[in-house]
Amino acid sequence: MTTSQAAPTYRVIQWATGKVGRQSIRHFVENSAFELVGVLVTNPNKVGKDAGELAGLPDTGVIATDDVNAIVALDADCVHFSPQGTLPDLEMVCRLLRSGKNVVTPLGPFFRTERTREYLDTIEAAGQEGGTSFHGSGLHPGYMSDLLPLTLIRLMSRIDRIHVYETVNFLAYPSNYIPAMGFGRAPDDVLANPSRSADTHHIYAQSMEMIAHTLGATITDITTTLELATATADIAYPGGLVEAGTVAGQHYEWTAWADGAPLITFHGFWIMGDAIEPRWDCGDDTGYRVVIEGDPGLELNISRGGINNDQDDNGALPWTGYIGANAIPDVCDAPPGVITHLELGVVRPRGLVRPGSLLR
Ligand SMILES: NC(=O)c1ccc[n+]([C@@H]2O[C@H](COP(=O)([O-])OP(=O)(O)OC[C@H]3O[C@@H](n4cnc5c(N)ncnc54)[C@H](OP(=O)(O)O)[C@@H]3O)[C@@H](O)[C@H]2O)c1
């Protein structure tokens, strides 16, 4: 951290320049609370390019490299670690932590469960050794499914059940992954071989366990259901076609049970527009809804205020980058070790109000 009479500046490295990574680079470059000092890429075509060029900005003077040793040798406060994957490379994260760099990552893990305990204990030890902290951030899980309900329950007197709804419209925000996600396949085939792994509930279980832990409840089981919708007509998207009669919608439900009753349900609606049957009542744009049944009942809807055609401004993905990026100062300032939302408390994002940015 660089301190001057003005607010401190956090020296950050962006690890990987996918959709989340590119949005994060923009945030680090445009926000005076940060100084971008390094960018790690795996794609050989990106090596040697300026971080600004990769993120659609003017040149920054920071040149992307695939040299891991050079990145680890940099003097930096934090690595925002967002490569492909569902779990960060444990050895690499520990190496970064031991080298004196805090790590914030949308890959998680987010909370200790039976599945993640050993992994996070190893990270904890590396953080203690390096005097650094690790925070698994993310949108869902990582924010909508845990931090948001945990914030809202303070408005309640009694909780009977918590629902978190996610809708992603892949027709509005086309992704390279549409075929891999099961769209365009025969319904029987997707039911026999779902595009989401049977292990997916272990990822969401971290958010569920965080909520249950806070409420003093014990989760005894997590169940999964999958319902499909089919295309009522051919659906064309940039890069392909979902033919009529094939899968064009997927509705997952993951439910955490406590004391013999459903306590938390995460509803995931993935849709390819509205020419689908059944047409679920899930809205037609990417967004999130938290519903808490109890006394008093509560409902919160979150959606993007307008669509930007920037290819990186892809639905909720900018949120994924900013949730982690905005936590970096507090994670850097936190005691060493694994820092979940419960330790982090209220994050104080820095540099969001910028000179000249206020509407007059
Ligand atoms: N919790 C959440 O809510 C949430 C939401 C969205 C995403 N995520 C996580 O964030 C990560 C990044 O998302 P994204 O949308 O930016 O993904 P993405 O656009 O697919 O980009 C991932 C980047 O990883 C790098 N990469 C490519 N091949 C790789 C490999 N074999 N091993 C490691 N890295 C490789 C590439 O960057 P370079 O060419 O620059 O190296 C690629 O651009 C995802 O993996 C996902 O786990 C979490």
From TrEMBL:
Keywords: NADP, Oxidoreductase. Coiled coil: none annotated. CDD domains: nat-AmDH_N_like (cd24146). Residues 146-347 form the 2,4-diaminopentanoate dehydrogenase C-terminal domain. InterPro entries: DAP_DH_C, DapB_N. Residues 16-91 form the Dihydrodipicolinate reductase N-terminal domain. It comes from the Bacteria. This is Dihydrodipicolinate reductase. It comes from Rhodococcus globerulus.
